[in-house]
Design a protein that fits this description.
It is a single chain. This protein is α/β, with parallel strands linked by helices. It is built from 17 helices and 14 strands. An eight-stranded mixed β-sheet has the order 9-10-8-11-7-12-13-14, sandwiched between helices.
Length: 493
């Protein structure tokens, strides 16, 4: 009832920002709000809106905007808040189809009076039976207020006596009891949790239960997807034959999100031929061991007496993002290149200790360790930046795998392409450069879309440019985009 009483006047817009600021605009008059947090901003906004409703003596409708989207709420003079559905005006073409009621003419009124008098004075008419299969084409159309025509005399004639007892018994269906096996008192449908984001989330915390927005529901779906535990280990290969294509940041972000949400043991493995950059962009543990040391100790790690904690001597744990890193060999004087057999050994060890393996790769698709990595891969990920040569290298990588047929071609067809809107890792991007990168990323994403299973775009974020990568250092929009990308990858498991 509150919503029906609320009018579109005055026009009220409320904006809630995550930095503790907001704004309420009433018929063009702006009221800026600054407070300690979102809850305080919303409290001040509701106070302003409630005062307006109290002055009018009726509820008011408010359009809300927050980082989670837009919506409509109703605020009463008492400060009670409820969610409102937008009122859509009836399109003109629908209005033209609405029935029009005209005033009855004098002739129509006389005809009604005469029909009423005839019905009252004359005896009840004999029902007329008209076969439904052969209607008369010459019969005039029946008037709207004429006496009804009965199409079957048998239907209208009431029987003098009730049906025989035997007939009654036959007409009544015998009662059938359901089996208790088909019955359960458990509620199978999940209960929708109230909103936690934006205006709806703050209102829910203040005691007004609000349903989550479509954006929050989509985020919850992605979180459920990446939180699964799959039977058996899963291996993800991140590949692009061109350097600087964002392979290492992609490995870090996929590993961080999978480990954070699923709680599954996750390792990021640098499968470069030598001196990969994954170790430079992540935390270093209390040792210098690499994949070569793990391979040398594989017999001990695979022995029946080996304990899970022993793997910590070879990997580097990420304290914030909860995954481990297996570094490549960083010995400047060494010239050892990992062979296909060594990839098999390392993969066997890691699947013994981890559920999820995310592999960084070098730039040579012909290398033995690169091809053997593909053999163990369950899901292929191809990162691209908004530069045409990176996109072309990604296309050639997929084309190479597709030409090999079999497992390789299947990986290429079901690949996930992640397009980042960064073009220069050496400097911060200006506004014009960001716009160009966004447009180029959209063009590249549209080009890959018909050829792979999924394409996800990632906005530019300076936290991904240099130094160690931390999930918590990313902007909220970047975190959300990487969650969507990881969910797309997980759907391929």
């Amino acid at each position: 009832m509150m919503e029906t009483q609320a009018l579109d006047f005055p026009k009220i817009n409320a904006v809630l920002r995550t930095n503790g600021t907001g704004e309420v605009t009433i018929n063009g008059t702006s009221h800026a709000i600054e407070a300690a947090d979102e809850a305080a901003v919303l409290s001040d906004a509701l106070r302003i809106i409630t005062e307006t409703a109290a002055q009018l003596g009726r509820p008011v409708r408010v359009s809300t905007t927050d980082p989670d989207g837009q919506g409509l709420i109703i605020v009463s003079p008492e400060g009670v808040v409820s969610e409102a559905a937008p009122i859509k005006p009836t399109p003109k073409r629908e209005q033209d189809r609405l029935p029009v009621t005209a005033s009855p003419s004098l002739e129509t009124a006389k005809a009604k009076a005469k029909a009423k008098a005839t019905t009252t004075a004359a005896p009840a008419p004999t029902p007329v039976s008209v076969p439904a299969s052969s209607p008369s084409k010459e019969a005039p159309a029946q008037a709207a207020d004429a006496a009804p025509v009965t199409f079957s005399a048998a239907v209208t004639a009431a029987p003098a006596e009730g049906p025989a007892p035997a007939a009654r018994a036959a007409a009544v269906e015998p009662a059938t009891r359901r089996s208790l096996k088909d019955t359960s008192f458990l509620i199978s449908a999940p209960v929708l949790q109230p909103a936690t984001r934006g205006w709806r989330g703050v209102l829910s915390r203040l005691g007004f239960r609000m349903d989550p927005s479509a954006e929050e529901l989509a985020e919850r779906k992605d979180i459920r997807t990446v939180s699964q535990h799959w039977p058996g280990p899963r291996t993800v290969a991140v590949v692009n034959r061109k350097g600087g294509a964002n392979k290492t940041p992609t490995v870090v972000m996929l590993s961080a999100i999978l480990a954070r949400y699923s709680g599954a043991a996750t390792v990021a493995w640098d499968n470069n031929e030598s001196q990969g950059t994954l170790g430079w962009r992540t935390e270093k543990g209390g040792h210098d061991n690499s994949v070569l040391d793990l391979i040398d100790s594989s017999k001990v790690l695979l022995s029946p007496s080996a304990q899970a904690a022993e793997i910590a001597r070879f990997v580097h744990h990420q304290t914030s993002d909860k995954f481990d890193v297996l570094r490549s060999d960083e010995n400047e004087e060494g010239d050892h290149e990992v062979t296909a057999e060594e990839v098999d050994i390392a993969h066997q060890v890691l699947t013994r200790y981890y559920r999820l393996i995310v592999m960084d790769s070098g730039n040579t698709a012909r290398a033995a360790n690169w091809r053997r990595m593909i053999h163990h891969t369950n899901q292929l990920v191809v990162p691209v930046t908004a530069i045409e040569d990176r996109a072309e290298a990604a296309r050639l990588t997929l084309q190479t795998l597709e030409s090999r047929g079999g497992h390789d071609a299947e990986l290429a067809r079901n690949a996930v392409v992640i397009v980042s809107e960064s073009t220069d890792a050496k400097r911060s991007m200006s506004g014009d450069a960001l716009k160009r990168a966004k447009d180029e990323a959209r063009r590249i994403a549209d080009g890959f879309a018909p050829h792979v299973r999924a394409v996800v775009r990632i906005p530019y974020d300076p936290a991904l440019v240099n130094g160690p990568i931390r999930y918590d250092a990313l902007q909220p929009a970047t975190q959300r985009a990487w969650l969507a990308a990881t969910a797309a990858v997980a759907r391929g498991f």
